[in-house]
Structure formats: structure tokens, C-alpha cells
Amino acid sequence: MGLRAYIIKRILYMFLLLFFVITVNFFIFMLMPGDPASMLVNPQGRFVQEELEAIRRVWGLSDPIYVRYFKYAVNLLTWNFGKSINTSVSIAEELSWRLPFTLLLMGGSTVLSMIIGILLGVLAAYKRGSRWDDVNVVSALTFYSLPVFWMGMVFLLIFAKQLGWFPLGRPMPTEWLLNPPPPAFAFNLLGLNVTIPTLGEILERIRHFTLPLMTLTLFQYGGWLLLTRATMLEALTEDYILTAKAKGVKIRTVLLKHALKNASLPLITSAALSFGFMISGAIITETVYTWPGMGGWIYTAINLRDYPVLQAIFFVIALCVVIANFIADLLYGIIDPRIKYD
Predict the structure, then answer these.
(1) Can you tell me the distance from the alpha carbon of 102 to that of 138, in angstroms, rounded to the nearest whole number?
(2) pLDDT in tens, 206-257
(3) What does DSSP assign to residue 168?
């Protein structure tokens, strides 16, 4: 089977998996305890049952299960997630403004932790048994084991409260919510209003972004360091590595081009999962730093039993994971020519 046939086969599998995800996602919320309609009714009222029935009819909760499933599947596939039960705001609109904050925080910390962890892991494997190796392994295990909320509170106490270098939270100053700063440039491009912020606005946003980014990066890099070190230790004992060293190849070339390339398949798998689940946000970190991302939204929706929001978010997360794994499968063959598409 060639690459084209393999891609077609994988795409068909993706659609089957997506159908399975939609089905499971529907029935999970069907079986969950509690009635979301009861959140909108005064339990002390005189016509509680009548109000509950009216709300169920409005939200389609009284329809037969096959009708509800068909509407649910069509709405998800057409990106029509409906409105939040709690706020009556369009879920797609709220998703569109929360998602950039999560992608900025989770994407930045994931990429930064991967770069730091992989490079330090390569050096730790090369200097196995040395003091450098011991320090890196201990520090990685320490940061990986510390509670992320504790790290965030310590950083706020030291860098925000005591030193005053960074703000206590939020992605921007509070006064910007009412009076946003004027842009440096504004123009229309193909019908879209494009604004370029001033240097002062960019630096202020970086100040608000630094502490949560540092917290998540320190929490994540240890896993990448330990995984890279484990895979590199196995690769460095192979015959082709010894042959390259005997030929006088530079040690940097041996480590990065030969050993790391052949040891990167587990790293690709882990990276695919990390980027796939990136949209789920970081609930604890976003709560500590008052960051308006997806994690805090999920936490609020769980507490308020806002099932339409949860169904939409879980569907988008599953879709990202499926796509990320598909990309990882293609990268396997590019990185390692021994892998055949069949």
C-alpha cells in the first residue's frame, strides 16, 4: 500500500472514530445525574413541574432519543453548538474568544517545555552518570512532582507580591476592559479590520503572560527531559552511533542527527497527545492566574451542569486529538524510513 492509499484509509478511520466519539459523547451526558433544566427553575415556585416541562420542550429535552441524537450529531458536524444553558450566549462565539488565550498559554508552554526538555534530555543522556545528569534528573522530577497550583501561588507571592515585577493575574490590565489602548496602526484588509498594537501594549501583555507561561513550562519540561533521556540512552548504544564516533563525526551531529532522530518516535507520539489535548486548557493554572481560557470554562460548565458547553468542548478536544494522531502517523514514516505504509 502506497502513501496515498494509506492516507485515504486513515481518513476513513478518522470518520469512523469521529462517529464513535459523537455517539459516546451523546450518551455520556444522557447518563449523567442531574437535570440541567432544574438550574433554571425556582424550586420554591408554585408551578415547578410546568416550568420544567416548558424548559425541556424549548431545549428539545423532551424529544425522542433518536431525534435528539440526530439533531446533536448534525449540529456538531456543522459547528452549530447552540447556546449555553447558563449564560444563553452562543457557544461558538465564546469558544472563538476563549480559544486564543488557551492556545497562547498552552501552545507557548508546550513548545517551550519541549525544546528545553529535549535538549536537556539529550545532554543528560550523553553525560550519563555525571553530576550534570544527576542535577537534571533531580530537578526534572522535582518540578514534575510539585503541585502546579502551589508553584503558581509561590510565583505570585515572590515575583508579583514581593518584587512587583509582574501583575497578579489576568491577561491584560483591568482598566483595558473599559478603555482599550489605541492601536499603533489600523487598516482594512479584504474586508477585515486589522489592528497592530503599540509596543507598550505588547510589553504589558507579555508581563501578564510571563508567570503562567513559566509555571506551565517548568511543570511540563521534566516529562520531556526524562522521556528524551530514556530513549536516547537506548539509541546511544547502537552500532551506528559507535561507527559514527569512530569515523570522527562531530558529537553534536551524532547526538542530534543520528541518535535523536532515531529516538524521536516516542517523542512524536507524546507531542501529538500534548498538542491534541492542548485545547482543554489548564484548569488549575488558569484559575490561579485568572486566565480566561478553556480550562476555567470547562470547570464552570461542570459546576453548573452546562451540558451543551461540555458536549461542544469535548467534541472539539476529541477532534484535535484525532487530527494530531493522524499527523503523527505521517511523521513516523518521514522520520524513520524503516516504517512502511501498509
Answers:
(1) 30
(2) 898 899 999 999 999 999 999 999 888 888 877 777 788 788 888 888 888 7
(3) S
C-alpha angle with apex 152: 146 to 157, nearest 5 degrees?
Answer: 120
Distance of CA 281 to the CA centre of its chain: 5
Task: Supply the DSSP symbol for 80.
Answer: -
**pTM, full prediction:** 0.80
Question: Where do the domains of the chain lie, and which CATH numbers do they carry?
Answer: 90-335 (1.10.3720.10)
One-letter amino acid of 37: A
CA-closest candidate to residue 219, choices 282, 169, 275: 282
Check whether 282 has a pLDDT greater than 70: yes
Number of Cα atoms under 13 Å in the Cβ half of residue 95: 21
- Single-letter amino acid code for the residue at 199: L
184 vs 314: CA distance, rounded Å:
38
Rg of the Cα atoms in the chain: 25
The whole-chain average pLDDT of the chain stands at: 82
Evaluated on CA atoms 73, 94, 105, 162, the torsion sign reads: negative
**DSSP-assigned beta bridge partners for residue 192:** 189
Residue 341's CB is within 10 A of a number of other CB atoms, namely 16
pLDDT of residue 277: 78
Give the cell for residue 283.
Answer: 484548569
Contacts 24+ apart (CB under 8 A), 300-305: 300/86, 301/84, 301/86, 304/39, 304/85, 304/86, 305/32, 305/34, 305/36, 305/39, 305/85
Read off the amino acid at residue 182. P
- 263 CB burial (10 A radius; 0-12, 13-18, 19+): buried
The string of pLDDT tens digits covering residues 137-191 is: 999 999 988 888 899 999 999 998 898 889 888 888 888 877 888 877 777 766 6
